[in-house]
Amino acid sequence: MSGRLVVCPTPIGNLEDVTLRVLAALREADIVACEDTRRTRNLLEARWLQRHLRYELERSGFENLERLARVAESRDSPDFEHSTRVGRLARRIAQMLDLGSEFAALIRETAALHDVGKIVIPDSILRKPGPLTDEEWVTMRSHAAIGGELVGRIDAFAHLAPAVRASHERWDGAGYPDGLAGSAIPLGARIIAVCDAYHAMTSERCYQTARGEPDAIAELQRNAGSQFDPTIVTALCDQLTTPPSITQPRERAESDTTVHAAGRLHHLPSHKATELLRTCEEPTVRLHE
Q: 146-154: long-range contacts at Cβ-Cβ below 8 A with a sequence spacing of 24 or more?
């Protein structure tokens, strides 16, 4: 079987047509590619805007809660720094117990809000120089549950609400609002309770004179196992009585006390850190030698 291959030269006109079609196809492909690039860019920008908006909403939500807490404490504490200083102490305890940097940030945020419920307590009770009546104590103790409810209403910070609510519980179950006892009290709340009591004792109030550090430490130790978690008391007393040159986390905490809201955890924390905030497990104290 045999045949011939005939090569016919393509007319110039046909070549031009092919070239034009190829160029048109390339332009169309380029337009499609540009459109895909534009759509991808728009999608990325939209996602970034969503994250940024969420961040801003979370930040503004926390800032509003913190403002409420500061207004509340300004009626009860003349230095306007109670919650901030409780937060410093709580973070130092978290660092000492090796609970992780994320938990340390969480406990500091929680401490900043632990008394936000006092915003609804009348001045006649908050600033009363003498002892409160039974009825007034009922009103005063309601601030813990109210604070937990306020914090829990903001989805981004709902994970802080249990520790805020339980920050006035006692180790022996005689606290409020739920009468939790021992390890049933969230770990975050146990840490805040000890730090809160220490700073309250060493601060001047309209109803008390400030105690010295040794007296406050002795009071914490007397109430370890009844009012306070003994492990947390041991950790705080070790922090307070250890020279700063040995306790490095203490120095870092003191020098980093003013943090803009943008520097805090304005995102949903890890499951591990959130569970640790409300855990019932006992932490281990790492004493300095």
A: 146/117, 146/120, 147/113, 147/114, 147/115, 147/116, 147/117, 147/118, 148/117, 149/117, 150/65, 150/68, 150/116, 150/117, 151/65, 151/113, 151/116, 154/58, 154/61, 154/62, 154/65
